[in-house]
């Protein structure tokens, strides 16, 4: 039997262990509680310990932007005009309750500036949660994203605003319970933050009133000065605003964007079944912008910005990439990015469509201007560094003044009589890519390259860290200004026997944020989609975005038009698929202008081995592959642009030939394009008869 002292000691240790366990549980509870409060990425500074944290500051009438609200101490006062959100996004079932909740109200906000001053201003506050796959879905997170896109485009349409977490503990008075109840639903993020919800806080705008409903006829009548800026933004942001949601200041008649919780709709929402008057909210913006040449009224600064960002070879990130980056620095970025992650590449898709239409209607069909300042820089900028990277094929890696980089290939205009040289094949394919509005190739120009400038005599030795990461097609990856072939060897330092230091070259721009060999999964399901045996929704479940499928459709069409039969992989620049490898284009035998197999069964999907024997051209789909209308998905804007060219009495081949003639010394050896366009249009008609308008995406 143990001694009494031993029992006492054991009891002491048990009590001590229990105390330590309780202490550990308490610490764990505090840590978990704070983790729930401080959402990943959050740097929010809230009012803690009562109102004295704010009231001790010095009163001031100085201005303090709401943009920094999440980084300062603040409190809401004088809450008024509380309205519960009325959202009906349930399925059409009388037994299913409407899904969603939310609240909006006005208030005064008092902020503490970094200088210790107190600044009071009037604000509008909104917090809305609903089923966002429904056409009536609303979200206050879309409000802040609309504000960020406005900043990226520099359109100046939205008001200063922030996204913050509103602690329930900071709500006092009779309105506190009303607000808490208004955001009490299963999909509210109160389940995430426990002690509060996210809210969108925006500056109140005086002298603001509803403006007449947005209609196509308004473009030709008296309207606010920023009308076309406003319409352009509504299109880029895919806004489905109701007729009473357009506002303008009464003093200077200037559009101001508020109530933007139905902007940045994913394309999947705008394509579902919905009442006609809802769909018209989207289609009327297209009608205003793309009819009667109104696209030419888009402000020049905005067009220039979009042209530059849209080029895969510019130094400026795409609009979608800039937009996503701005969202990512938000203090609650992970929450915002999680909502509708596809909108960033879809934004880039709409920018590309608008730029293509502007170029076609307003740029005199001169491809040399289609990429704006990017084209001009590649064509005219002075070379500041160069190195020879392929002596046999006479390829030269160059760096231009201003930072643009590319690969120049020497052109011998007198060489070749039936098919273009590889460098010219890229140039001619680029003309087709831009004239059709596909816009998936890097910038390509024909220019004179001067290598006899004195200051360059001793510089043609680019360091190895600039000469790595190049693909077989000499498209560069994004990490630095880098050339080379995988970094295996140093580039050649010996100049080939070019015969001159003033060279005619085709210069292909470096792709920004380039990703080679993008993995393709579920090829069978992709094939099913393009032959109408699978839907968008089916492919989305396999992580294929709608924009990716649109880009695939455009690339298949481009391959057919330029007779590029051997695409084996997909590649990507920033958020979207791009096209490379056009050096192998235009392999058209004189007796074979149309190879329908490239269109009917794209080799990259069917893994077919291509034969350059022209008589086997239409046998390349492989044994057992049904080729009847097996690829019947096309981007609507691309097909419509080709049809418009024909309706206006021109042809795509004539337009390309005109571009070739404008470049002095280039041989006009383009063959078969007209026949392929004719076949394409008849094939599209066959698809429409079989599947209806569903073929146009």
TrEMBL record:
| Swiss-Prot/TrEMBL keywords | Glycoprotein, Membrane, Secreted, Transmembrane, Transmembrane helix
Asked if the record carries the keyword Transmembrane helix, the reply is: yes
Cellular component (GO) terms are:
extracellular region; membrane
Entries under InterPro entries matching the protein = FNDC_type_III_4/5
Q: Which PROSITE patterns does the record match to this protein?
A: PROKAR_LIPOPROTEIN
The UniProt record lists the keyword GTP-binding? no
* Lipid bilayer topology: Single-pass membrane protein
The domain of life for this entry's organism is Eukaryota
Localization in the cell: Membrane; Secreted
Name used for this protein in its record: Uncharacterized protein LOC118430676
Q: Tell me the organism.
A: Branchiostoma floridae
């Amino acid at each position: 039997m143990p001694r009494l002292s031993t029992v006492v000691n054991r009891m002491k240790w048990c009590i001590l262990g229990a105390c330590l366990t309780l202490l550990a549980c308490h610490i764990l509870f505090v840590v978990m509680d704070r983790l729930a409060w401080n959402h990943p990425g959050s740097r929010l500074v809230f009012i803690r310990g009562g109102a004295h944290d704010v009231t001790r500051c010095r009163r001031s009438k100085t201005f303090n932007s709401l943009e920094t609200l999440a980084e300062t101490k603040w409190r809401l006062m004088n809450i008024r005009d509380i309205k519960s959100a009325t959202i009906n996004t349930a399925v059409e079932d009388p037994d299913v309750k409407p899904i969603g909740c939310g609240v909006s109200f006005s208030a005064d906000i008092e902020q503490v500036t970094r200088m210790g001053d107190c600044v009071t201003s009037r604000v509008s506050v909104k917090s809305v949660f609903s089923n966002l796959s429904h056409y009536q879905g609303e979200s206050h997170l879309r409000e802040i994203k609309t504000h960020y896109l406005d900043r990226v485009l520099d359109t100046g349409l939205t008001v200063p605003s922030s996204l913050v977490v509103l602690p329930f503990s900071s709500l006092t008075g009779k309105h506190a319970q009303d607000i808490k109840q208004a955001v009490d639903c299963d999909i509210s993020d109160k389940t995430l933050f426990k002690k509060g919800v996210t809210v969108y806080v925006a500056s109140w705008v005086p002298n603001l009133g509803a403006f007449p409903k947005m209609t196509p006829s308004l473009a030709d009548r008296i309207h606010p000065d920023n009308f076309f800026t406003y319409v352009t933004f509504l299109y880029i942001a895919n806004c489905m605003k109701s007729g009473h949601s357009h506002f303008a200041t009464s003093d200077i008649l200037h559009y101001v964007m508020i109530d933007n919780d139905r902007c940045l709709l994913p394309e999947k929402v705008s394509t579902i079944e919905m009442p006609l008057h809802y769909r018209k909210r989207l289609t009327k913006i297209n009608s205003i912008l793309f009819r009667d040449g109104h696209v030419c009224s888009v402000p020049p600064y905005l067009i220039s910005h979009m042209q530059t960002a849209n080029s895969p070879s510019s130094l400026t990130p795409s609009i979608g990439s800039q937009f996503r980056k701005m969202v990512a620095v938000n203090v609650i970025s992970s929450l915002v990015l999680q909502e509708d992650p596809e909108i960033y590449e879809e934004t880039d898709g709409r920018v590309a469509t608008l730029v293509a239409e502007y170029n076609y209607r307003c740029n005199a069909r001169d491809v040399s201007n289609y990429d704006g300042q990017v084209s001009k820089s590649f064509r005219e900028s002075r070379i500041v560094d160069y190195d020879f990277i392929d002596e046999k094929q006479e390829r030269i890696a160059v760096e231009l003044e201003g930072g643009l980089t590319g690969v120049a290939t020497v052109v011998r205009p007198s060489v070749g009589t039936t098919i273009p040289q590889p460098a010219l094949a890229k140039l001619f394919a680029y003309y087709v890519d831009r004239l059709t509005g596909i816009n998936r190739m890097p910038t390509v120009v024909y220019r004179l390259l001067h290598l006899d400038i004195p200051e360059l005599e001793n510089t043609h030795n680019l360091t190895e860290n600039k000469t790595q990461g190049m693909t077989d097609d000499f498209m560069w990856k994004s990490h630095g200004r880098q050339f080379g072939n995988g970094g295996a060897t140093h580039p050649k330092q010996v100049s080939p026997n070019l015969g001159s230091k003033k060279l005619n070259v085709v210069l292909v721009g470096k792709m920004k944020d380039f990703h080679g060999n993008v993995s393709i999964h579920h090829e069978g399901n992709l094939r099913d989609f393009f032959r109408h045996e699978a839907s968008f929704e089916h492919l989305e479940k396999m992580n294929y975005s709608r924009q990716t499928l649109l880009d695939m459709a455009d690339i298949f069409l481009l391959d057919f038009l330029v007779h590029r039969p051997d695409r084996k992989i997909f590649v990507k620049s920033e958020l979207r698929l791009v096209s490379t490898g056009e050096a192998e284009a235009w392999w058209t035998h004189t007796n074979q202008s149309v190879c329908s197999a490239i269109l009917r069964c794209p080799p990259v999907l069917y893994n077919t081995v291509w034969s350059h024997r022209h008589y086997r051209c239409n046998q390349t789909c492989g044994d057992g592959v049904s080729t009847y209308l097996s690829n019947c998905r096309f981007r609507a804007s691309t097909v419509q642009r080709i049809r418009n060219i024909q309706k206006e009495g021109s042809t795509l081949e004539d337009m390309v030939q005109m571009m070739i003639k404008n470049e002095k010394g280039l041989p006009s050896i383009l063959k078969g394009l007209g026949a392929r366009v004719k076949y394409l249009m008849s094939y599209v008609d066959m698809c429409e008869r079989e599947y209806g308008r569903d073929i146009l995406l």
